[in-house]
Write a structure and sequence with these properties.
This protein is mainly alpha-helical. 80% of the residues lie in helices and 0% in strands. The chain has one domain. The chain contains 12 helices and no strands.
Length: 294
């Protein structure tokens, strides 16, 4: 069904589901250990993703897929725990705004891992993006008002670095494996990785929280499946602008559910970050076309 829709529309649906998922995570971290929430996200996400995988005809998962998704699973698990913890501290819109920095980190991650050369334009975009982060932090609560606020900001930025790695791997695996397998492995593998730490540290959720864990799993499965569908049929540069609509959804959900009113500096900083990311995507696409022509 979704394969007939434009990739941009499919990704928009994924972003809406992801925003609702973040709100559910924030709600659950108020009364549950972050490891339990992260494990619950991947456990229930795997159950729903398994149903999607079955409906897709149970495509074969090869040994090569297990190895690739095993590496990606560790990256996703680290990213999730850090971001989920930050949601327990920061307003929803603020955490989402800071997470937008991840595309600007990708060239530096590629330089570190793949030894790729960092272009001057990538450096300039990163500087502009981090200027946006600094602006977004203006007017933040003082250390006395919110002692963990600075740590929460750091957690988002580190999780963004992990997410930039995960997105590079997602693009590759979505094309090779298909949306059903990517969706299943993205939930199942991190869940396995988080199982033992959660068992040792966290306590079980209360009965009243179980429906929200089911909701979290359903939203996670829809988010990942639609994301994989979109990225399997379109270039990352084409889809990049749609990701930034998440700030609108996060602002609305944060205001309605958590009574959070984002500071004006958040939107000013977001404007700089988004502008830097969009230019970086444009520059990447321009260079790709130039290479094809030559």
């Amino acid at each position: 069904m979704f394969s007939r829709l434009p990739p941009a529309l499919v990704l928009t649906g994924a972003i809406v589901a992801g925003s609702a998922m973040d709100a559910t995570i924030k709600f659950l971290t108020l009364t549950n250990h972050v490891l339990l929430v992260a494990f619950g996200r991947y456990l229930f996400g795997a159950l729903f993703s398994f149903a999607i995988w079955q409906r897709a005809g149970m495509p074969v998962i090869t040994k090569e897929m297990w190895r690739a998704h095993g590496l990606r699973g560790f990256v996703i698990a680290a990213c999730a725990v850090l971001f989920f913890w930050s949601l327990s501290i920061l307003p929803l819109a603020e955490a989402v705004t800071l997470s937008f920095i991840y595309p600007l980190l990708a060239p530096f991650v590629a330089a570190l891992i793949l030894k790729e050369r960092i272009r001057p334009s990538s450096m300039i975009c990163a500087i502009v993006g981090f200027a946006g982060v600094i602006i977004a932090m203006q007017g933040a609560p003082s250390a006395a008002e919110s002692p963990r606020h600075a740590i929460g900001v750091a957690a988002v930025l580190v999780s963004a670095a992990f997410f930039s790695i995960a997105m590079v791997l997602l693009r590759e695996r979505a094309q090779k494996d298909g949306a059903a397998i990517v969706g299943l492995m993205t939930s199942f593998v991190p869940g396995v990785i988080l199982f033992i730490p959660t068992l040792l540290i966290a306590t079980p959720p209360t009965l009243s929280d179980w429906p929200f864990f089911f909701q979290l799993g359903a939203l996670a499965a829809v988010f990942m499946y639609l994301m994989a569908q979109a990225y399997a049929r379109a270039e990352a540069q084409q889809l990049a602008p749609i990701h930034y609509t998440e700030l609108l959804w996060a602002s609305a959900i944060g205001y309605i559910i958590f009574r959070e009113t984002p500071r004006p500096e958040i939107y000013a900083g977001a404007a700089l970050i988004v502008a830097a990311c969009l230019y970086a995507a444009y520059d990447e696409r321009r260079l790709s076309r130039f290479k094809e022509q030559t």
